[in-house]
Amino acid sequence: MVQSSTEKLLRRIVTTFGVLFALFWSLAPIYWIVVTSLKSPREVYSSPPSLYPLRPTLANFEAALFKSNFLQFVWNSAQVAIAVTVISAVIGALAAYPVARMRFRGKGVAARAIVTAYLLPPSLLFIPLFLVLQTLGLINSKVGLVIAYLTFTVPFCTWMLIGYFRTIPMDLDEAAMMDGASRFQTLTRVILPIASPGVAVVALFAFTHAWNEFLYALVFVHSNDTKTFTAGLTGLIMGDTFIWGQLMASSVIAIIPILIIYIVAQKYIVEGLAAGSVKG
Hints:
By secondary structure, the protein is mostly helical. Helices cover 75% and strands 1% of the residues. The chain folds into two domains: 5-57, no CATH class; 60-277, Orthogonal Bundle (MetI-like fold).
């Protein structure tokens, strides 16, 4: 059926409008955060608010970087997120391989249990986790926070890697084992190199989850030596008073590392998402 020029034009207009609306919906909050971070307190509370800073200032960034503990909070977040990412990727790969590539009794139950663990809301788990970490003496520690984060990143990484591993032909496993390789050697020397884009995507998502997590960070740690930046931002809220300029400047600083990582790793993200969407 041949489409008329009017139908093509209409479809193009609708597509363009949809893309522009999606961009506006996604970028408008980020734009407002950046704009507010460059405003003076008088401009922040002016009515009606201006869409851009009339007199841009870096005073909010100076306060966030040099007159607060925010850099310490960012460093704590980086340590926790990196540890969670590495551990989640390793455990996820070791758990996903047998579910995706091997036959054993209870395989379906194991897969469903992984999905169930991932779908459990963190808000239901923080009280039991608090009791466990308190018993272990890990409250207000980075180790305790890492353990808490693993409860949702490991199921996520495992489930995602199951899908990636299933796209790899089983003939490769059989060929490797015929050459004398063990299951572990097959995983590390054959499967993981092929699935590296998928592993990179999973690790990136795990890092993002750990970097942005707020509830556990607020409940399980409280000192400046262990507090992450998401919990640290609450220090800029005093009752019903919000220090908006410094709050937005701190948010901009926290966005930059994730933005850089995504820009650098965008090639692997595209490859990994494409690999996980096609059954090979």
